[in-house]
């Protein structure tokens, strides 16, 4: 599989996150804070993004294969399970504590702020801990 | 200029980014998965290039287009650490974040992604409400 198309995709993603203001945690918290001085920006960001993916995804996946790889690698799981909901709960709490989700946090490393470096290190630690913790608490 | 033109334009670019990755490599533009996979593998190369591009995109916005750099978060570091740990743990466990489940999953009409997105959005709102009442609006 070729890798260079991912660079283009990354540039567009980084442009999108920073132009839209989503690399500003205050704007994200302002959106989640529905009883305060509500900042609706995130609705427009998600709305713009999802309209594009909703319209174009079926056209792309109707192809037999991607342009530069042999197959589509799409998530195959269909069922809802405890890991999906539990993970989304933990992620939502973490997101609401700082206003950072993974994309905005990573692109914010550009700004050289201590808090974004600390956030990203903690995020990777959390990712690394997921396997061991899930095995520890897995119902057997 | 309309205040929502930049958020909307940025959102469309996020969608186009995801669609290019799907069309070219057949992959989902989920940042938590790409970030973890760039370290843990397999197929580190395209994931690493995506992250390099992500930073280049940010440089374009602030250094070429001239959009102002946002201010640093005012949250105390213990809160940032807790937040990062939960985001890392939760996105691995739930199989995605705002991009993989939100931007890509909703576009794929995935029921799992719809449930995940509604769940983390709701928990984000609740968390901010709780923090507001605990910290007296300091957040």
Question: Would you kindly provide a brief summary of this structure?
Answer:
Chain A is mainly α. Chain A is built from six helices and no strands. Chain B has one domain (5-135).
Overview of the molecule:
The complex is a heterodimer of chains A (140) and B (139). Chain A has 140 residues and is mainly α. Chain A has one domain. In chain A, 66% of the residues lie in helices and 0% in strands. Chain A contains six helices and no strands. Chain A has helices at 4-19, 25-32, 41-61, 82-98, 102-107, 114-137. Chain A starts with a helix and ends with a helix. By secondary structure, chain B is mostly helical. Chain B has one domain (5-135). Chain B is built from six helices and no strands. Chain B has helices at 5-25, 31-40, 44-65, 77-94, 98-107, 111-135. The longest helix of chain B is centred in the last third of the chain and has 25 residues, at 111-135. Chains A and B meet through helix 1, helix 2, helix 3, helix 4 and helix 5 of A and helix 1, helix 2, helix 3, helix 4 and helix 5 of B.
Please tag this protein with its features.
heterodimer, A: 140 residues, mainly alpha, globular, B: 139 residues
Produce the secondary structure layout.
The complex is a heterodimer of chains A (about 140) and B (about 140).
Chain A: H1 4-19, H2 25-32, H3 41-61, H4 82-98, H5 102-107, H6 114-137
Chain B: H1 5-25, H2 31-40, H3 44-65, H4 77-94, H5 98-107, H6 111-135
């Amino acid at each position: 599989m070729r890798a260079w198309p991912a660079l283009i995709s990354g540039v567009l993603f980084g442009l999108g996150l920073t132009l839209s203001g989503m690399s500003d945690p205050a704007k994200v918290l302002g959106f989640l804070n529905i009883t305060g001085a509500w900042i609706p920006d995130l609705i427009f960001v998600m709305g713009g993004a999802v309209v594009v993916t909703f319209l174009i995804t079926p056209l792309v996946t109707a192809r037999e294969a991607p342009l530069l790889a042999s197959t589509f690698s799409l998530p195959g799981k269909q069922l809802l399970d405890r890991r999906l909901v539990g993970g989304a709960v933990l992620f939502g709490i973490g997101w609401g504590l700082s206003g950072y989700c993974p994309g905005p946090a990573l692109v914010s490393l550009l700004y050289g702020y201590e808090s974004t470096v600390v956030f990203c290190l903690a995020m990777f630690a959390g990712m690394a801990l997921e396997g061991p913790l899930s095995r520890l608490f897995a119902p057997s | 200029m309309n205040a929502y033109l930049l958020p909307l334009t940025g959102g469309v670019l996020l969608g186009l980014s995801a669609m290019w990755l799907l069309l070219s490599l057949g992959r989902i533009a989920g940042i938590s998965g790409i970030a973890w996979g760039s370290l843990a593998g397999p197929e580190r190369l395209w994931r690493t290039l995506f992250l390099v591009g992500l930073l280049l995109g940010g440089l374009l916005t602030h250094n070429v287009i001239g959009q102002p750099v946002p201010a640093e978060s005012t949250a105390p570091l213990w809160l940032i650490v807790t937040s990062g740990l939960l985001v890392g743990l939760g996105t691995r466990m739930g199989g995605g974040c705002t991009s993989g489940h939100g931007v890509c999953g909703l576009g794929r009409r995935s029921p799992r992604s719809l449930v995940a997105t509604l769940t983390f959005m709701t928990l984000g709102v609740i968390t901010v409400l709780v923090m507001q009442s605990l910290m007296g609006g300091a957040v």
